[in-house]
Amino acid sequence: MPAEPCSVTACTNPGTLTCSICDQPKTRYCSAACQKQDWTTHKRTCAGAQKHNCFIIRTTAPNGSTNPADRIEPFPLSAYGNWIVEMKELQQRLGWPHADEAGKFYSHQAKDNHWYYYMYASSAPGLPVNDIATRCRHHAREVRGDVAVVRSGPEGFASYEETFCRMELLKTVNYYNTANSSEVFGQRERSRFGERSGFPPGFLDAHGLTTMHFS
Predict the structure, then answer these.
(1) pLDDT tens digits for range 143-167
(2) Could you give the CA distance from residue 147 to residue 132 in angstroms, rounded to a whole number?
(3) Quick check: helix, strand or coil at residue 99?
(4) Burial class (CB in 10 A: 0-12, 13-18, 19+), 66
(5) How many CA atoms lie within 13 A of 113 on its CB side?
(6) Is the torsion defined by CA of 5, 7, 67, 24 positive or negative?
(7) What gap in Å lies between CA 126 and CA 181, rounded to an integer?
């Protein structure tokens, strides 16, 4: 069966590649060049580029896909900005017996040390390991079951955008395929503390304060 055509109107080549962050059916392209050319138009409707205040990272993709993007689903919260009301809504809508903190992790962008991703998970026993959440978590411990991810930040740091898109979260998830989450978290915490205390960038690390955490 021949491949569907490339989504770029002027292109007649077969679309053998797909947008990795789209929902099904995925938009098709013949090449990376055509995808880049079409991005200005495609991002208006691409599910992976739409911003929400919460996403779910599933333990497995509902469609059996091995693409990590297919495990990240939008889950907009109506009660946002307070952990108590966030947990209550998650429990009610997802049927969790209780919503527990599952960990934090900073963005793949080194400049983003005023906020982090904050994860909630169900307290139900016997859930499968969530390898993505476990890999990203700021301390080494298995995270089980689906997790809800929001943006949050330390007290006194409110200058961050509350909504984000699947593409942004996926870039961070992929970053932790090689980056050590504990080391990154410690470095960002030191950077934030140093900035707040008036130290020049890199001062704490340069003076051997490499094991300090300030959250």
Answers:
(1) 999 999 999 987 666 678 899 999 9
(2) 10
(3) strand
(4) exposed
(5) 18
(6) negative
(7) 25
Q: How far apart are CA 104 and CA 102, in angstroms?
A: 7
- Which residues are within 8 A (CB) of 161 and not within 5 positions of it... i.e. 6 or more apart? 151
Tell me the one-letter amino acid at 17: L
pLDDT at 212 over 50: no
Amino acid at position 13, single letter: N
- What pTM value is reported for the model? 0.84
Prior bond of 25 cis (ω within 30°)? yes
pLDDT tens digits, residue range 83-104?
A: 899 999 999 999 999 999 999 9
One-letter identity of residue 197: S
- The two three-digit tokens of residue 96, written as one number: 């969790």
Alpha helices in 43-180 (DSSP H): 83-94, 131-136, 166-175
d(CA 136, CA 68): 13
Question: Distance from first CA to last CA of the chain, Å, rounded?
Answer: 56
Name the nearest CA neighbour of 150 among 64, 78, 61: 78
Joined tokens for residue 98: 């209780």
